[in-house]
């Protein structure tokens, strides 16, 4: 097995949506398991710390990376089977997520429309169980294949094995730094069932003339989601960001009631287990952070949950701003905010 040809002192600036300059000691594009087997067989490369990189849209690079960046580039989408209820579609880790969703819609397959326009790759989507507008990846997930660096084998994991949670999965715990997702298979329901439970989506459909969301097609929902996201979120090609910077904190019913008594208008959503999810953006906004800047790092003026790079911010600048926001929210509400992007 020949040693993979890595590039050295490689700039990651174009490979993260914050647009932050940081350099990787070594960089290698990966198109499948064979490249990973070759890395594992090479004593020098195998000894390096690894960073698996997709679209870099959920990362904060706070320093240069003294290790090997494995950039997932594998391509390919195919229908791999069907039964009475589902069509099964497999996509390689390096496929662009939004491009993949649009491909399914063009084939007349529905189920992923609410997840339109989320940046990044297919392979990263299970890592934090991406979600938006009432749907999470786990709702359409069938199985995935991943290369296990510890065993040197390709594993197949079903939904239970992935242990999906809110912006969470086994890949952030036991399989962290161990499993590299190679491809993901989705089970797309044959029975069309629009999900317009989110007020924004329902309103956008109404504006398009649908008196009943049940009459909307998957394409209509996708177009509504794309329009809402384009209006609300900064385009990383124009202003560096990683989407929502903090997870929505989960608190007990007791804590939520106590907060509500003190803070009129507190936005919260009841969870199945009786706990409440608080809108982190509302908490940050109430602390007066919306539109504020600290040097070149800032809080997006239309959405307090999104931190932005106004140009030339370092990862440390963004991290410092995030820390100041966390401290304020803790002081005012007694609630801990946890960042969503991975800090490197
Ligand atoms: C404008 C904007 C809007 C966003 N909106 C949403 C949203 O609505 N919902 C949502 O959930 N997220 C959202 N995000 C966050 C982000 O798009 C998702 O988390 C996405 O899945 C990250 O994909 P990526 O390929 O860019 O991952 P990267 O940033 O490259 O990596 C993220 C993490 O996954 C790991 N990883 C990547 N690929 C693999 C792989 N193949 N195998 C193993 N580990 C891997 C990395 O090591 C890292 O830990 C948004 C981001 C932006 C910039």
Can you give keywords for this protein?
344 residues, alpha+beta, Uridine Diphospho-n-acetylenolpyruvylglucosamine Reductase, domain 2, Uridine Diphospho-n-acetylenolpyruvylglucosamine Reductase, domain 3, Uridine Diphospho-n-acetylenolpyruvylglucosamine Reductase, domain 1, 5-stranded antiparallel sheet, 9 helices, 20 strands, binds flavin-adenine dinucleotide, UDP-N-acetylenolpyruvoylglucosamine reductase, EC 1.3.1.98, FAD-bd_PCMH_sub2, cell division, FAD-bd_PCMH_sub1
Summary of the model, kept short:
The chain has 344 residues and is α+β, with helices and mostly antiparallel strands. The chain has nine helices and 20 strands.
Task: Please provide a written account of the structure.
This protein folds into 3 domains: 66 residues, 2-Layer Sandwich (Uridine Diphospho-n-acetylenolpyruvylglucosamine Reductase, domain 2); 113 residues, Uridine Diphospho-n-acetylenolpyruvylglucosamine Reductase, domain 3, CATH 3.30.465; 104 residues, UDP-N-acetylenolpyruvoylglucosamine reductase, C-terminal domain (Uridine Diphospho-n-acetylenolpyruvylglucosamine Reductase, domain 1), CATH 3.90.78. The strands form 6 sheets. A 5-stranded antiparallel β-sheet has the order 6-7-12-10-11. The longest helix has 19 residues. Helices cover 25% and strands 27% of the residues. The mean pLDDT is 95. With 344 residues, it is of the alpha+beta class. The protein is globular. The site of flavin-adenine dinucleotide (FAD) has 33 residues, from β3, β8, β12 and β13. The site of flavin-adenine dinucleotide has 33 residues, from β3, β8, β12 and β13.
